Fold:
Amino acid sequence: MREEFRWLPDGFSMRLRPGLLARRPAKIGDYMLTPFVGTEIFWDTRFNRVTNVRFTAGANLPVHEGFSVEPYYVRQFDPTPGGPTANIIGFLMLASF
Structure:
């Protein structure tokens, strides 16, 4: 669960973002990667309704010790009739030390 406290030009609002994320390591030959899928719902107090639904899929791909990349795809839509839909492709570079 994520909570966002937002001060917007028209006042304060809060978004509650419950979600689920499933990851499972997979080995292909000697290479270990971690695919994932997830979903998240955005409840906005300004409208007292769900304003967005988000589905995510991707994989964590180790490149070197302490360094990995994570390509992902997100489909986000507003569940109201005629609401906008967004298709997003992203790429994260992660370093741990």
